[in-house]
Amino acid sequence: MHTEEDGGGQGTIRASPRREASLGFTDLDVLASRLEQDGDHYEALAALGEFLGPAVETRATAEEIAELPVAKVELVSRRRTKDGKIKQKLSVTGLRVDRCTICQMQFRPDQMACIFPCLHIFHDSCASRLLKTVRTCPHCRRDIAEPSSPRILEGVV
């Protein structure tokens, strides 16, 4: 902004002219024109992909998240080793669990765990947070909308 003096000693404020886009080209137009030239296009294609985003929705819907079963982590057995450490065996609906592979923290008795269709188990809070950005299991990359096969579910109580 510029200030100019008028005859009465008062300053008037005049806005600076806005810079117009040259020839009306956007960053996307410039990037696309680079793709038309010969040469290595990997970086330009990666930038274009990042700009446009994924072609399909990558996050799970609220309904899909709500349909995933949630169960309590149960203590199966507990023992003290010779060196004084406590060893626990934990399970969720009969499936043995140790650590959540999302946060890398050990499960604790009475925590709530989310069971994916592939039978991988995570803390409920970790799974909910993750599924707001992706819709696949972080362990095996299976889509959570794919139903479990009856063969997989035979051993589950």
From TrEMBL:
InterPro entries: RING_finger_E3_ligase (IPR051834), Znf_RING (IPR001841), Znf_RING/FYVE/PHD (IPR013083)
Pfam families: zf-RING_2 (PF13639)
Domain RING-type: residue ranges: 100-141
Key words, A-Z: Metal-binding, Zinc, Zinc-finger
One MF annotation (Gene Ontology) recorded for this entry: ubiquitin protein ligase activity
Gene3D superfamilies assigned: Zinc/RING finger domain, C3HC4 (zinc finger)
One of the record's GO cellular component terms: nucleus
Tagged with keyword Zinc-finger: yes
GO BP of this protein: ubiquitin-dependent protein catabolic process
The keyword Zinc-finger appears for this protein: yes
Name this polypeptide is given: RING-type domain-containing protein
Native source organism of the sequence: Tilletiaria anomala (strain ATCC 24038 / CBS 436.72 / UBC 951)
